[in-house]
Specification:
Layout: H1 2-27, E1 42-46, H2 52-60, E2 67-70, H3 82-97, E3 120-128, E4 131-132, H4 134-143, E5 151-158, H5 164-173, E6 178-179, E7 184-187, H6 194-204, H7 207-210, E8 226-227, E9 242-245, E10 248-251
Parallel strand pairs: 1-2, 1-3, 3-5, 5-6, 5-7
Antiparallel strand pairs: 3-4, 8-9, 9-10
C-alpha cells in the first residue's frame, strides 16, 4: 500500500511539473527578447565582437529594466582585426566613401524588433579605428529613421581611443534622436569599474526621470532572476506553476 501511494504521488507530481513547464514556456518573451506589448520602454541594442560590449550590456541590464537586441553580421567567422585590421578598415572605408548607399554597409542578420514599442534606445557599440563598428552602423542605417524623437543613449567600448568619431557616426545615422546629455566611454583602463561607471552615468543623464521608469536597480545588487525548471530565464515571476528563484524551487 505504501509503495502504491508513493508511486501515485510521483505520477501526480510529474504531471503537475509538465503542466507548469507548458505554462511557463508560453510566458517566455519572443526570440531576441523582443517585446510586443509595449510594457518595456527601453531597448538596449548592441554589437559585440570581443564580448566587451556583451559584458557591458549584462551589467547595464542588472541596473535597469530593458529589452535587449543583439546585432550580428550575416557572414560569420570573419576576423576583422587580422592583418592589421585590414577587413575592418575596408568595411569602414566603404561606408565613408558612400554613407548614403545601402550597399556600402555590411549585411547583418534580419531583426524583427518593432521600435514603436520603445521610447528609449541605448546603443552599445565597439569603436573601430576611431569610428563606430561597421556592423552597428549597418543596423542604424536601416533603423535610425525609426528612432526619431526617441531618447538615445550611447555607450562606447574601446581600447584607448576617444569616442568622438563614434558619436559623430551615431548622430549621422540617427539625426533626429533626443540624445542624453552625456555619452559613456568604457575603455580598457576603466573596464573593471563598469558597474559604478554605468550607475553614475544613469544618474548623470537623469535616466529614471527622463524615461519615466519608477525604479533603477542598485548598481551593487543584481535583481533576482527567475527560471523555469528547464533553466530558461523568465520575463517575469509567474502567477502559478513551478519555477526557480534565487536557487530555490517555488510552487504557486
Amino acid at each position: 500500500m505504501k509503495n502504491y501511494i508513493s508511486h501515485l504521488y510521483i505520477v501526480i507530481m510529474s504531471f503537475f511539473m509538465m503542466a507548469c513547464q507548458s505554462d511557463e514556456a508560453n510566458a517566455m518573451p519572443p526570440a531576441n527578447n523582443n517585446s510586443s506589448n509595449g510594457d518595456s520602454k527601453t531597448l538596449v541594442v548592441y554589437y559585440s565582437y570581443t564580448n566587451n560590449c556583451r559584458d557591458i550590456v549584462t551589467t547595464l541590464t542588472s541596473q535597469i529594466s530593458a529589452d535587449v537586441l543583439e546585432v550580428q553580421p550575416a557572414e560569420k567567422g570573419l576576423h576583422y582585426e587580422a592583418n592589421g585590421y585590414a577587413l575592418g578598415t575596408q568595411l569602414l572605408n566603404a561606408i565613408k566613401a558612400n554613407p548614403n548607399d545601402a550597399s556600402s554597409y555590411p549585411a547583418i542578420d534580419p531583426v524583427t524588433t518593432s521600435l514603436d514599442n520603445y521610447n528609449t534606445i541605448i546603443i552599445v557599440t565597439p569603436l573601430w579605428w576611431s569610428q563606430m563598428a561597421a556592423i552597428m552602423q549597418s543596423y542604424l542605417f536601416s533603423n535610425g529613421s525609426q528612432m526619431a524623437n526617441k531618447n538615445i543613449g550611447l555607450i562606447v567600448s574601446s581600447s584607448s581611443s576617444g569616442i568622438s568619431g563614434v558619436v559623430s557616426d551615431c548622430k549621422r545615422l540617427v539625426p533626429d534622436g533626443k540624445y542624453f546629455s552625456q555619452n559613456l566611454w568604457i575603455s580598457d583602463s576603466n573596464r573593471s569599474r563598469r558597474s559604478s561607471l554605468i550607475a553614475d552615468w544613469l544618474t548623470t543623464i537623469n535616466y529614471n526621470s527622463v524615461t519615466a521608469i519608477s525604479e533603477v536597480k542598485s548598481a551593487n545588487k543584481v535583481s533576482a532572476r527567475i527560471y523555469d525548471v528547464n533553466g530558461r530565464l523568465l520575463a517575469k515571476e509567474p502567477s502559478a506553476g513551478l519555477y526557480i528563484k534565487e536557487g530555490k524551487k517555488i510552487v504557486r
